[in-house]
Amino acid sequence: MKSFASLKRLGHYIKPYKIGFILVLFFTVATVGFNAAMPYVTGLPMTEIARNVANGESLNFDYIWKTLIWLILVGVGYTISQLLAGLLITNVVQSAMKDLRRDIDEKINRLPVSYFDTHQQGNVLSRVTNDVDVVSGAMQQALIGMVNAVLSIIMAVIMMFYINTYMALLAIIMIPASLLISRYIVTKSQNYFNSMQNALGNMNGYVQENMTGFSVLKVYGREKETLEGFKKVNHELKRYGFKASFISGLMMPLVQLTAYLAYIVIAVLGSFYVMGGVIVVGQLQAFIQYIWQISQPMGNITQLSALLQSASAASTRVFEILDEPEEPINTTDIPLPETIEGNVTFEHVSFAYTPKKPLIEDLNFSVKAGQTVAVVGPTGAGKTTLINLLMRFYDVNAGAIKIDGIDTKKMSRSDVRSLFGMVLQDAWLYEGTIADNIRFGKLDATDYEVVDAAKTANVDHFIRTMPEGYDMVINAEGDNISLGQKQLMTIARAVISDPKILILDEATSSVDTRLEALIQKAMDKVMEGRTSFVIAHRLSTIRDADLILVMDQGSIIEQGNHETLLAKGGFYANLYNSQFSEEAE
């Protein structure tokens, strides 16, 4: 069916484990064969007993015991085959899901920054975790279940025709009837399953977003509004979940109704055939069991259909990530020169996040190696965008950004980014030791280099006062150390990477005056001999910059050093004086 088209792509992940999958099919066929033989073997002693009674003979216990032994062997064979099929399918599915998760992780690392700027973090996380788990569960249960059900139906139909052709033709009418019912209901319910998975992603995104900013919500008393928002997304999930489950749940009773009708018709017709000597009573008993061997798999198929529909919706969301356009790779990238000085030039650069809203137009400036450049301006002026372009998180729409005269578009992104060290306003540390977090800037750094970087960043003393020092584990939230210490550690991380160009984005905006002075001192050490770009709202921190770029609405409206710009009495002077007045107050 078209609604299950995305599930076909999962075959790519099953293919490497085809030997295991073939063994699964073999043992599944064996399971179905033993299951199909069970009613026929069960009917043999019944037929013999009925014949003995009808002829006034004593019961043929030798024959009965032999058939019972065969019945036990069939039952044992069925159990062992089913167990082996289950073990093998578990191994195949979990191995395939491991590969799928690996591909998703690798894909995420190849996606452009713009993807994460336009997609809710929690929704992306839901696709990687919840949706993959849904696919995994469906494959685990449904893959062998569907094969088993189809083969069981085929074997049961064959045995029916072996017993009596006319009765078999009447009985199998329920198969197309059940399929038509199932197809109709799947068509109606699939949209609701898609909406349900999207609603689940939205809810996860909402929860993740609010948990991240929980303290802010408490401060501003937004608990009630947040709860109302959660109720809204939760209601959407409940609404779509109910409709999907209710509609898909109609399949089982309707399919069973066709089985009951077939059972009644066969019971009546079969009784006449037994009295007429066309079939024996054991064959009638077996035939009725085969009806249930068709009905039960049909019921299983309808139950698995809901699971498959959820998996189809989930796999669609997963493959949407895998199908996202990646950052383009230029096969003719120019290799990095052996020596990089750090000269940076913007030549007629234009950029827009969306074509209808240009942000930067015809931007031009030059920075010499070792200079410190401060970028200031009101919110929305384009300061952070300038850094995004410099790091090639986004590519310019027109013009060129050059490092030592080389257009960064002609260099690989990894090479461009290897030239930069970055300290952001929001200090990011991961769960691990302090030493490992500093070493993140250079994974092969020695312990001596880690300590040296910490000393340069003025954080060595802080670390040594911590329990376990450099081996102290920072928790997942990073809240077992202060914000200032986190910021200093990110500076140490930038130091250890030994970048040619340094970017400091509002690095001191979230700390107190004492820590600001400490961080500023650390940054001054780090910036020595390096080309540095500093974005700062506190203009007092960038008075010693070699060049100050004043931006407004994507353009540089003033540039020069601190004294020159103050002497002009323009935008920068007004901005600086207003801040100075505020600080004085």
Automatic annotation (TrEMBL):
It is found in: Cell membrane. InterPro entries: AAA+_ATPase, ABC1_TM_dom, ABC1_TM_sf, ABC_transporter-like_ATP-bd, ABC_transporter-like_CS, P-loop_NTPase, Type_1_exporter. Gene3D superfamilies: ABC transporter type 1, transmembrane domain, P-loop containing nucleotide triphosphate hydrolases. It is a multi-pass membrane protein. Keywords: ATP-binding, Cell membrane, Membrane, Nucleotide-binding, Transmembrane, Transmembrane helix, Transport. Residues 22-310 form the ABC transmembrane type-1 domain. GO terms for cellular component: plasma membrane. It holds the Pfam family ABC_membrane. GO terms for molecular function: ABC-type oligopeptide transporter activity; ATP binding; ATP hydrolysis activity. The chain crosses the membrane at residues 21-41, 68-93, 142-162, 168-186. The keyword Transport applies. It comes from the Bacteria. Residues 344-578 form the ABC transporter domain. PROSITE patterns: ABC_TM1F, ABC_TRANSPORTER_1, ABC_TRANSPORTER_2. PANTHER family: ATP-BINDING CASSETTE SUB-FAMILY B MEMBER 10, MITOCHONDRIAL, ATP-DEPENDENT PERMEASE MDL1, MITOCHONDRIAL. This is ABC transporter ATP-binding protein/permease. It comes from Enterococcus saccharolyticus subsp. saccharolyticus ATCC 43076. The lineage of its organism: Bacteria, Bacillati, Bacillota, Bacilli, Lactobacillales.
